[in-house]
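Section 3.1: Structural characterization of target chains.
Under the original work plan, the team committed to producing a structural model for every single-chain target entering the pipeline before any wet-lab resources were allocated. The record below documents one such target. The sequence was received from the expression subgroup and is listed exactly as submitted; it comprises 256 residues.
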Amino acid sequence: MAEPGGLRLLPGGAVGGPEGGFEVGYIAEDGTDRRIALRDAGQTRFEWSRPARRFPQYKGQKHMPGRWWTATMGCHVGYESWLERDHLMLLDFDPAVVAVASQPFWLFWTNDQGKVRSHAPDYFARLAAGGAVVVDCRPAERIMPRDAAAFAATRLACEQLGWGYRVSGAPEPTSTRNIRWLSGYRHPRHDLPAVAAVLRQVFNQPGGLMAGAEAAGDPISVLPVLFHLLWRHELRADLSMPLHPDTVVMTEEVTG
């Protein structure tokens, strides 16, 4: 019996593959190669594993690989394209995410033709509540049948572990541009406690971004701290609209 994603189901609902189910291969933090049954993956700290595969780099390539310094972890995490970079940035911005790793593992399974297949998801994110979400980045128009089968297998494996899974295309442009701007101030060097305290007091009542910065001091020195607090969600604003001098900013505690 085969699932729509090309998985071969064994009696009792197990997925066909090595040892009758999914297997996971990864490179541990100490550099050793590991291969485990899916049932053991739930206790594995993939957020600290090394990338399971290298990003190809060659002359004339269309993708732009690189490394993103994550404020969440205080270290660099790789990306293979600008689309992946944007989703990595959004994971870094998400307060529910406490750690993230790129190309965290290989997932192995057997398809309905009896062939062993493998797929390395783009990201693994550990959540503050203790769970996890696995992310693949691919525009819908570029998902070929073989990709769809790999994504279906990955979704099923994640469901068996109680993890979330999503395939993400191009993110919403306006909020992404805003978050990209704020990301320029994500580094802790912009955390100036004295200025931050004044800004929290100023924006205890919702007010315009620039007016609040001027009320807190010299905007040249205050704005970087303001943007840092917006990145950290200690101040908030409607990021679905372009940031501008009159954008209403408020403390996290204000609800109406």
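Confidence is low (pLDDT under 50) at residues 1-20.
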